[in-house]
Write a sequence for this structure.
């Protein structure tokens, strides 16, 4: 009888212990995402994403980590990074919209924004863009960096004094191709590492680039910067939607908090953004890069031509979604 009772008590203890284990929530296993950049690792426009990854990894210990595998062009064409990510080759990426317009034709709306990202989230613009992105298996997480407006940079002897680019051959990306061509320039595309060689050899007379993202290696071949700037050189965090949806709420919260924290910090009117601009202008001055400021009617023509050519091209390419995106992303004219 005593033996039977002992066996019974041992069995009961085992059941209770098992029940206790089953009742205790299992700790979520840390998830590692495969991250990539649309820029060379260490290049000025790529550094913000690298810093973002570092911050996410610090705050996401035990929850989510990002293994930064590399950047374009070492991992392939920057124009294929987000497309390959959507197909499952990577999980998360840091890229400007100029490099994922091939998979999401509506992406240029992100550079044509005339409202703050806080306003775009409030008025439904980001939600609408998210619907469009999700159809391509891309999750738009947020804008983690703003490199400022785009400027035209010119070689020595190529100064302009009006909104006329006739006779100039300029290196372009899709961002400002229509704009420069409308003002009379001839254009050619190239990768970022080729800009210095093209300028140094005289193959091109200038290039368009974001005011905060210019590579220091280009300073020696650059003499002028043209104001006013146009559009916004935003760099965004995007993710494979399938992978994003499979993350725990806690993991998504870590990433969202870091990305949107930087999104708010980078607004053009913030003290931080103003400080970055002041530092960049000082660098230009120290490196002999002069500022050409178009004024009056010429400035108005420059800005209006940039806006009109961009939106005309955008709506022509996106007749169904374009008008609504323009309404949501721009200020009343």
């Amino acid at each position: 009888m005593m033996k039977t009772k002992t066996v019974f008590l041992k069995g009961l203890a085992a059941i209770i212990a098992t029940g206790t284990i089953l009742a205790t929530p299992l700790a979520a296993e840390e998830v590692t995402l495969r991250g990539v950049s649309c820029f060379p690792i260490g290049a000025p426009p790529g550094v913000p994403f690298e810093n973002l990854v570092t911050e996410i990894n610090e705050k996401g210990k035990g929850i989510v980590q990002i293994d930064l595998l590399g950047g374009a062009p070492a991992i392939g064409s920057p124009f294929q990074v987000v497309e390959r990510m959507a197909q499952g080759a990577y999980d998360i990426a840091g890229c400007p919209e100029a490099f994922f317009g091939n998979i999401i034709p509506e992406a240029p709306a992100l550079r044509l924004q005339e409202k703050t990202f806080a306003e775009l989230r409030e008025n439904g613009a980001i939600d609408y863009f998210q619907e469009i992105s999700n159809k391509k298996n891309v999750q738009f997480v947020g804008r983690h960096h703003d490199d400022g407006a785009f400027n035209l940079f010119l070689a020595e002897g190529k100064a302009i004094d009006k909104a006329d680019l006739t006779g100039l051959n300029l290196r372009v990306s899709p961002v400002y191709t229509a704009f420069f061509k409308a003002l009379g320039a001839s254009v050619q595309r190239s990768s970022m590492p080729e800009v210095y060689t093209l300028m140094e050899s005289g193959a091109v007379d200038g290039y368009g680039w974001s005011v905060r993202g210019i590579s220091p290696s280009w300073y020696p071949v650059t003499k002028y910067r043209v104001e006013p700037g146009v559009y916004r050189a935003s760099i965004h965090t995007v993710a494979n939607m399938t992978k994003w949806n499979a993350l725990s709420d806690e993991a998504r919260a870590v990433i969202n908090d870091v990305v949107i924290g930087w999104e708010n910090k980078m607004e053009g009117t913030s003290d931080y953004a103003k400080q970055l601009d002041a530092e960049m202008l000082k660098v230009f001055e120290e490196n002999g890069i002069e500022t050409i400021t178009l004024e009056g009617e010429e400035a108005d023509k420059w800005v209006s031509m940039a806006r009109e050519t961009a939106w005309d091209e955008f709506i022509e390419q996106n007749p169904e979604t374009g008008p609504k995106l323009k309404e949501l992303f721009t200020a009343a004219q």
